[in-house]
Amino acid sequence: MKHLLAICLAAAPVFAQANLLQNGSFEANSQALGSRWSFLSNPAGGWLTPRGAVELHTRSYASPSAQEGSNAIELEGQCGFCQLSQSFSTVVGQSYEISFWIAQRFDSLGAASNGLTWQISSSPEAELVGQDNNKRWTQIRRNFLATESQTTLTFAAAGAQDGYGTLLDNVSVVPLSPIPEPPSYGLMGAGLVVILFAAWRRKNKKR
Q1: Phi-psi category of 75—alpha, beta or left, where left has phi over 0 and alpha has psi -120 to 50?
Q2: Do 102 and 147 share a domain, yes or no?
Q3: Is the pLDDT of residue 142 over 70?
Q4: What CATH number does residue 25 fall under?
Q5: What is the extent of the structural domain holding 46?
Q6: Cβ count near 59 (within 10 Å)
Q7: pLDDT band at 5 (very low <50, low <70, confident <90, very high)
Q8: Where are the coiled-coil regions (predicted)?
Q9: Are 90 and 140 in contact (CB under 8 A)?
Q10: Domain tally, the chain
Q11: DSSP letter (8 states) at residue 138
Q12: Which is more confident, 60 or 119?
């Protein structure tokens, strides 16, 4: 019966999807010994910084601890309003969830100074988030429907160009679980019938 249960579970849809982005928490990058922040061009894992270097923060005096791991990115780096982007494979017609976390620096100059935008390549407009003075990590989650076989996610600094930008961490893109195909339903149903029948027989033997 254990084997049958394992088969049924294997036929079920997988809900814990893998992140389609590489180095989503920026942990593949490291600081120089003794440093807590530095300028960083093209972070590891396929990230690109087309306008110039962003800032990598590692428990710096100006930033809260990273939301995941040790590192976070500030987009208002060497280039002022910097960008950070990564491309990933998508299936046309499949829905995906984008998730990322933002927080303001401890020495933030106020809501008007802060914020960043995010945008996917198939969308005509970017969305502005984080134009506040919240120094605690806040999760942003959005869904989108893929219209291309490759999609690019881009973040850009917003607010005032004053060197005090919004922090970004723990970025992920995952496919939303598809509906299981009919054969999977059939296998699950057959397995469940066998399990219930075995339980019924065992109960009757005890009488």
Answers
A1: alpha
A2: yes
A3: yes
A4: 2.60.120.260
A5: 18-176
A6: 14
A7: very low
A8: none
A9: no
A10: 2
A11: E
A12: 119
Considering only residues 197 and 99, tell me which one the structure prediction assigns the higher pLDDT.
99
CB 74 within 8 A of CB 106: no
Are residues 170 and 100 part of one domain?
A: yes
Distance of CA 20 to the CA centre of its chain: 8
Q: Within a 10 A sphere around the Cβ of 81, how many other Cβ atoms?
A: 18
Give me 141's structure tokens.
Answer: 């989650």
Residue 150: helix, strand or coil by DSSP? strand
Strand-strand pairing, 37-40 and 71-74: unpaired
- Nearest residue to 84 (alpha-carbon basis) of 21, 37, 136, 30: 21
Among candidates 73, 96, 91, 175, which has minimal Cα distance to 142?
A: 96
pLDDT digit string (tens) for 33-52? 778 889 999 999 999 999 99
Give the global pTM: 0.77
Q: How many residues does the chain have?
A: 207
**Spatial separation of the C-alpha atoms in residues 117 and 100, rounded to whole Å:** 12
> pLDDT-based confidence at 119, cuts 50/70/90?
very high
Name residue 48's amino acid.
Answer: L
What is the percent of the chain where pLDDT is above 90? 57
Tokens 């530095």 belong to 38
R_g of the chain, CA atoms, integer Å: 23
Do 116 and 163 belong to one domain?
yes
Return mean pLDDT, the chain.
Answer: 84
